[in-house]
Amino acid sequence: MPNSLFSAVETAPVDPILGITESFRADSNPRKVNLTIGVYQNDKGVNPVMSSVKQAEKRWLEEETTKAYLGMAGEPRFGELVRELLLGPENAVEAAKRAVTVQAPGGTGALRVAADFIHTQLPGRGLWISDPTWPNHNGILGSAGLTVKTYPYYDPAAHGMRFDDMRAALEQVPGGDVVLLHACCHNPTGVDPTAAQWAQLAELFQRRALVPFFDFAYQGLADGLDEDARGVRIFAEQGLEMLIANSFSKNFGLYRERVGSLTAVARDTATAERVLSRLKLTVRSNFSNPPAHGGKIVEIVLTTPELRQLWMRELTEVRERIAAMRRLFVETMAKLDVRRNFGFLLAQKGMFSFSGIGREEVLRLRKDYGVYMVENGRINVAAMTTGNMDYLCKSIAAVIGK
Ligand code: LMR
Fold it and tell me: Any idea what DSSP says for residue 69?
């Protein structure tokens, strides 16, 4: 037999999030719990389709008249609605027509469009990500050819932010470099800057001519739609130019529809239009034009008053259930009389927390109890339920010891 064309191809490393979820699916333990991938579950352990989304889909099934391609930037109305969510109603950026948006397949697609744009249009600039960050940031940015470096972010001993260290590091970053910031619900730590800290960062970015690049995947999952946008809006009010990749996977529950977008805020309309032309070219050479379905559902929900109201109520339920699970987890662990105190989880926001559970413990939890979390100890609080909490906490207690 001649050698295979592919004989030199080596097996890829397992993805730290999606790969572990594959192992979870194969696990036959009936009590297994999956705290790896960031997907919301209701208290029945099911990822539900929101009613607002279902109703919009029913309507669209009737009203849709064509399956012809969207334009490279997607639907213009979708772009306007995205900017309103990100920057607030009647914001100065929109009034001055300084922002443009391209629709993309999920937040990941938007990040990739941004990465290609930075690589081709802002050449030679470094790209800085927080330590730690979502592991796929390295994959997406690296495969676009960007050189990725890190700035300090998280203090494992205090379970909080190393804000002074972060600022000191950003003071040393070469002017003009691009710095990726998590707009809210920092993935994987759940630790976000306060409004005062955002203001300090905006001043620093302005003074040092750093380029803000927001990853905004969890709007509405921390404190509320407007509250979660405070960092982005503080930067916008300072007049900073920036890139914002956002996702509707989590706040609309549209994970598998792959709907997100990339917004560029520029100095003036003419600059914004030039940037848009380049973003469209990037879209064209990556996936030609975006998938339509998810974006249309977002558009229908946001522009139909009763569906928008319903969606906001459903999103509030999601946010409140996550917060309730945080409290229940902390209380349940406290009752089990373990040496570690998990009270710090209460100050963290969104789906994720850095549990402080070590790698060896994570592997034992997986093997002996069917409890799956990311190897760095990240847990998805949104997958905890009143039904799995006891088993989950007792398993953790058994592994971390008294
Ligand atoms: C996560 O961090 O779990 C989510 O953003 C899903 C993903 O693609 O990794």
Answer: P
Residue 18: CB atoms within 10 Å: 11
Residue 17 CB less than 6 A away from ligand 1: yes
Nearest residue to 349 via CA among 323, 325, 330, 328:
323
The string of DSSP letters for 164-194 reads HHHHHHHHHSPTT-EEEEESSS-TTT-----
Burial class (CB in 10 A: 0-12, 13-18, 19+), 56: buried
70 Cβ neighbours under 8 A, 6+ residues apart: 103, 289, 290, 292, 295
Mutational pocket test of ligand 1: of 14, 15, 17, 34, the residue with most ligand atoms within 8 Å of the beta carbon:
17
**Ordered DSSP codes for 79-138:** HHHHHHHHH-TT-HHHHTT-EEEEEESHHHHHHHHHHHHHHHHSTT--EEEEES--HHHH
Read off the pLDDT band of 2 (50, 70, 90): confident
Q: What is the distance in A from the centroid of ligand 1 to the CA of 42? A: 18
Which positions are catalytic? 134, 215, 250
Please name the residue that has the structure tokens 């709907």: 259
Is the whole model's pTM more than 0.90, yes or no? yes
Nearest to 37 by CA among 321, 379, 307, 315: 379
Q: How far is the centre of ligand 1, averaged over its atoms, from the C-alpha of 69 (Å)?
A: 28
289 pLDDT higher than 90: yes
Say how many Å lie between the CA of residue 354 and the centre of ligand 1: 14
